[in-house]
Design a protein that fits this description.
The complex is a heterodimer. Chain A contains eight helices and 22 strands. By secondary structure, chain A is α+β, with helices and mostly antiparallel strands. A six-stranded mixed beta sheet of chain A has the order 2-3-1-4-5-6, with helices on both faces. In chain A, strands 7-8-14-11-10-15 form a six-stranded antiparallel β-barrel. Chain A is globular, with a radius of gyration of 24 Å. Chains A and B meet through helix 2, helix 3, strand 2, helix 4 and helix 8 of A and helix 1, helix 2, helix 6 and helix 7 of B. Chain B: GO terms for molecular function: ATP binding; sulfate adenylyltransferase (ATP) activity.
């Protein structure tokens, strides 16, 4: 048995990634392979899948049963919803968002992509680029996933031919350039045999690049690469007013998470919408002080001056303050079975702030298969469109391309309380 | 402006910060939440996260335990002690009271009360008007949980509709409910069993003693170790052995099995967890093995 010291001291944090493709592309096999080769599938889970496969009369073990968790999915043999899977290499923890591939599940793919920092796009080596490949790539790009990996799978079925791989790569690069997709990496794999996933394998020896796992191990996690302004939406104000502890009588902790940037004791901060400026007196986690905090840390900020701040307010640095806006242009993915109505008022949640919103104008809808714009009067579930929204009160956003956390919003239907739209702010016009 | 961050969070720091963010969203969005605290390891982590999220203020919610009446006394003692140490309000509602009221009817006296916790939980939600219950469920525990939202909507009957869940994007959680409906919030959704043990080790968290190796009479049944207790006595042809075991998960005595282990410290448990070949629920839960959808069916009926 290994000792706990077997855990390396180096911790490369956590990477969230998305896998796109359909069962036919070997996506489930790829996930199964990653989990199996990193020993994240345990023996009893594997034997349950085996039993389940046999009961369904399948000759081979169906690794998709690993990710299809709901009864309806198993009955219908389809993936309906995003499933999350976990594995760890000892140096890094991974969260896989496994999204269904079909067009009618665009909303699930957008959901899965919203928190991912890398996407693996699977292409069947025999089929090359398909409509689906273009749709998945486009959505991954739209939702701002910074790292795309195109994995050309089933290389075993094309005799491990380097020419096939290179043709698909060139096709993809031509397409990516048209969409403005920047960094893309390519890798030939065989998920079935495990070539270039965790182990290299001998059959693709003409490929000199990193294995898929090596790409994952070295991909920057979100918080290491983005250079952004300090943005701190206030979630909750802690005022203990503890009569037994007079020291806490004046305590006011503004609790929230650094959605971007960093902050140190002594830094000047500005509260929005009030515009009042103060300095950070203390930064605390669990009531204990720390000298500074970075992107993605959840802390409490104590300020030197007593200013009125509540949930929904935003703390920024005075020279980096975003503009107040009451009209936004955004790209919206419609998530609800009830179509978007331009007559209705929705509730828009942006960071911790909520405001009433109405659609001003639908500029155009995007055809995610042909990647063309088309006119639209209304939006159905899974539609993606550029539109403008009018807000009852101002928000303080960044453009989504600059900051995913402060450039995103959701729309809520107040009659059902359902989340009906997901938006990414394109441009910011001041009031 | 636009400096490049050079410092990064470790995976435990990230998971902790994420869970704190979720806890604060629940409290920011919901009027009357409760935190489900059983004394088990996952809820022990939740409680520490709640301290980190809200100290030096008081915990902005009561602790709620649904007691089947079939818990190990060591765990109940621990539960009460922790709640007292934290000066938290502890609400306990028991399945036995639901049975006395007639809202829980067992098929036979020895039927496991585990799934009937849902009824008592829904009664407690109604009694106190809770609009959110924070729980320590994890997506890696079970396949239907892998599909669950972090803020999971329950209708007025406490029911979960897995095919019609609210989309959940970025960290923009939607915990809005109408009167009578509620949210189940799962701040450690993305944690694995190993993460939980690593966090317990890092934070030096206390646990009920039955998590550590101890001698216990058991019967080997269908690959599981059935503990021999007054509630689960040995049957006539059972072969009772006393071996050293620990619990990987702590729940109702009638459906939770220990595993054979010599691990008597958190370090030793971590080492075992890192190399185990059996999943947490697979090795320990008798109630998940009845069918492929046992958990999904319980969750649809209001289970957490």
């Amino acid at each position: 048995m290994s000792s706990p010291h077997a855990f390396p001291q180096i911790d490369h944090g956590l990477l969230r990634f998305l896998t796109c493709g359909s069962v036919d592309d070997g996506k489930s096999t790829l996930i199964g392979r990653l989990l199996y080769d990193t020993k994240a599938i345990l023996a009893d889970t594997l034997s349950a899948i085996e039993t389940s496969s046999q009961r369904r009369g399948l000759s081979e073990m169906d690794l998709s049963l690993l990710t299809d968790g709901l009864q309806a999915e198993r009955e219908q043999g389809i993936t309906i919803d995003v499933a999350y899977r976990y594995f760890s290499t000892g140096t890094r923890k991974y969260i896989i968002a496994d999204a269904p591939g079909h067009e009618q599940y665009t909303r699930n793919m957008v959901t899965a992509a919203s928190t991912a920092n890398l996407a693996i796009i699977l292409v069947d080596a025999r089929k090359g680029m398909l409509t689906q490949t273009r749709r998945h790539s486009y959505l991954a790009h739209l939702v701002g996933i910074p790292h795309l990996v195109v994995a050309v799978n089933k290389m075993d079925l094309v005799d491990h031919d380097q020419g096939v791989f290179e043709r698909i790569r060139d096709d993809y690069l031509y397409f990516a350039a048209r969409l403005g997709i920047g960094e893309v990496r390519f890798i030939p794999i065989s998920a079935l045999h495990g070539d270039n996933i965790v182990a290299r394998g001998a059959r693709l020896d003409w490929y000199r690049g990193p294995t898929l796992l090596e790409m994952l191990e070295t991909a920057p996690a979100a918080h290491t690469e983005v250079a952004e302004n300090f943005r701190f939406p206030v979630q909750y104000v802690c005022r203990p007013r503890d009569s037994a502890n007079p020291g806490l009588h004046d305590y006011r902790g503004f609790m929230g998470r650094l959605e971007s940037g960093e902050i140190a004791v002594g830094d000047a901060v500005q509260a929005l919408p009030s515009g009042r400026i103060s300095r950070v007196k203390e930064i605390q986690i669990g009531g204990l002080g720390i000298p500074s905090a970075i992107h993605e840390q959840s802390v409490a900020l104590l300020l030197e001056d007593e200013i009125d701040i509540s949930r929904g307010d935003l703390l920024v640095k005075p020279d980096e303050a975003p503009e107040a806006v009451k009209t936004i242009d955004a790209c919206v993915c419609w998530l609800s079975e009830t179509p978007l109505s331009t007559a209705r008022t929705y509730l828009l949640r942006h960071t911790t702030r909520k405001v009433k919103a109405k659609v001003g104008r639908i500029h155009h809808r995007l055809d995610v298969n042909r990647l063309e714009r088309e006119p639209a009067e209304q939006l159905q579930m899974n539609d993606i469109a550029h539109l403008s929204l009018k807000l009852a009160q101002p928000i303080f956003p960044d453009a989504y391309a600059d900051n995913r956390a402060t450039g995103a919003f959701i729309l809520i239907d107040e009659s059902t309380n359902d989340t009906v739209g997901a938006g990414m702010i394109a441009t910011v016009e001041s009031v | 402006m636009n400096r490049l961050n050079t410092r990064t969070l470790t995976h435990l720091d990230w998971l902790e910060a994420d869970a704190i963010h979720i806890l604060r969203e629940v409290v920011g969005q919901c009027a009357n939440p409760a935190l489900l605290f059983s004394g088990g390891k996952d809820s022990v982590c939740l409680l520490r996260l709640a301290e980190k999220a809200f100290r030096p203020g008081p915990l902005p919610f009561p602790l709620l335990h649904i007691d089947t009446g079939h818990n190990y006394p060591e765990v109940i003692d621990f539960r009460d002690r922790r709640a007292a140490e934290l000066d938290a309000r502890l609400v306990v509602r028991s399945v036995e009271d639901s049975m006395a009221r007639g809202s829980v009817v067992l098929k036979h006296p020895s039927e496991s009360r585990n799934k009937h916790q849902s009824v008592t939980l829904l009664e407690a939600i109604e009694e106190f008007g809770f609009d959110a219950c924070i729980g320590g469920a994890r997506r890696d525990e079970e396949k239907s949980r892998a599909k669950e939202r972090i803020m999971s909507f329950r209708d007025a009957f406490g029911g979960w509709d897995p095919k019609n869940q609210r989309p959940e994007l970025w960290s923009l959680y939607n915990a809005r409910v109408h009167q009578g409906e509620n949210i189940r919030a799962f701040p450690i959704s993305d944690w694995t069993e190993l993460d939980v043990w690593q966090y317990i080790q890092r934070e030096g968290l206390a646990l009920p003693p039955i998590y550590f190796a101890h001698p216990r009479p058991v019967v080997r049944t269908k690959g599981l170790l059935r503990p021999v207790t007054p509630l689960t006595p040995a049957l006539a042809d059972d072969q009772v052995e006393e071996i050293r075991v620990r619990f990987r998960t702590v729940g109702d005595i009638t459906c939770t099995a220990p595993v054979e282990s010599e691990a008597d410290s958190i370090d030793a448990i971590l080492a075992e967890t890192a190399v185990t070949t059996l999943s947490e629920r697979g090795a320990t839960r008798m109630d998940d093995q009845t069918s492929e959808s046992s958990m999904e069916e319980r969750k649809r009926a209001g289970y957490f």
